UniProtKB/TrEMBL annotation, chains A, B:
Protein name: Rrf2 family transcriptional regulator
GO CC annotations, alphabetized: cytosol
A Pfam family reported for this protein in Swiss-Prot or TrEMBL: Rrf2
Gene source species: Amycolatopsis carbonis
Domain of life per record: Bacteria
Gene Ontology MF: a single term: DNA-binding transcription factor activity
DNA sequence: GATTAGATACTCGGATAACGGCTGTCCGAGTATAAGGGG
DNA sequence: CCCCTTATACTCGGACAGCCGTTATCCGAGTATCTAATC
């Protein structure tokens, strides 16, 4: 899995508590990560329609939808790509004892098992929204999001 | 995910129906895949204790345990490695507004969500055994495993 | 015919290159802002 | 005092290298089998 997923999720949580656009460079120095690379992830999120980019001098990124309607799965798929990790090569149709194509209407047992597991993984990620994450952060570390919100609108040191 | 997982699973299903050791080269040409690379995957399975290697002229690989006691998760972890796909970098402890370490006793909400999803994925794979896969293949394509078994002990064309 | 020594051929095992994708970086296009001059 | 033009500085967006993991491959160590000679 791409490591940028973690950055993207944290940025989405931060964007939950700000109303003004937050620049990518500011988010980068907040998390102490590479600004250019974080920009790439934010571009992916913007392309997926999860966040909206505002250009100009006071521009930046804001959430495109309600935090409760953005799931963790949305972010993961936007950054890592929607294609599943396991892809069946249909090797049962290859080799000297290949099974005839007319007997391969349904996916094989291995492909079904893998697909089911990924489906369970996907459902678990779909069940959690960005709002849930923000609520949890606010409960374990009260005032953190508010402090970040005020820090974001301050001029850099 | 590593593509060799599919090969390893198919090989395990094939090994279910043979009592004599099956050489890696024979399994490779049965599935029409690279012999050398398949050997690597089988080595991983052997190192994990799932299959047992028999050396010598009539050597090869056989299942080390009962097919019902080998889960798909065992094979996936043996080939792909046991380390989870998502690793928390603890970026909440970095940057100008880093949360103090004494407040980071428990994993953050993001890490917990990801861990929960991977746990669900893992449980789904643990619920299916190699015996289940073989039974399914035998029902959808009767006689296939028996044919493979006889073909494996024949001399190569 | 049984036994034993040897040669053989086949097996796995680990060490070694080539490719693709993730990681990291850069500069150009575009725009809201701010300043400044004029009415 | 208000408005318009201009310059500015800041933003995103896509195009460009570097590194690590997966893919693919090879040859050497080791052993059960087969052969053949001997008793």
């Amino acid at each position: 899995m791409s490591g940028g997923v973690e950055w993207a999720l944290h940025c989405c949580v931060v964007l939950t508590s700000v109303d003004e656009p937050a620049p990518a460079a500011r988010l980068a120095q907040l998390h102490d990560v590479s600004p250019s690379y974080l920009a790439k992830q934010l571009q992916a999120l913007s392309g997926a329609g999860l966040i909206r980019s505002v250009q100009g001098k006071a521009g930046g990124y804001i959430l495109a939808r309600s935090p409760g309607s953005i799931t963790v799965l949305d972010v993961v798929e936007a950054v890592d790509g929607p294609s599943p990790a396991f892809v069946c090569t249909e090797i049962r149709q290859r080799g000297p004892l290949a099974t005839p194509p007319e007997a391969c209407t349904a996916p094989c047992a291995i492909a079904r098992t893998m697909a089911g597991a990924e489906q369970a993984w996907r459902e678990a990620l779909r069940a959690v929204s960005i709002a849930d994450l923000a609520r949890d952060v606010g409960s374990t570390n009260p005032g953190a999001l508010a402090g970040i919100s005020t820090w974001l609108r301050q001029a850099q040191a």
